[in-house]
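Researcher: Please predict.
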Amino acid sequence: MGEAVGQSMVNPNQTSIPQGFTVVIIAIAIFKIYDYLASRYNKFSKAIVSDPILLVKDGKIIDESMKKAKISKKELESYMRLSGTDNISDIKSSHLEINGQVSFVKK
């Protein structure tokens, strides 16, 4: 009797191909709906997608923006080195972009 109970139980860790396919289709549908709403309704787009945050202007770090972006000065310096500069005074502007990357415009 113990074997019959063990054989009739379904393993929740197994996913069938149709179930996996359904999940993929639902994910694609959600992204398509999001794209449609973001392109069609400006208010929806503004609520979901934030504007880039200005971190540096004319070689000066904007502390309030750094706090908002949750980026430390050491982290900003690291991004600067990766972009090929090591002097903050060489930076005209720097933004935390909507994709999470930090961009720099040199003077």
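Model: Residues 15-49 form one domain.
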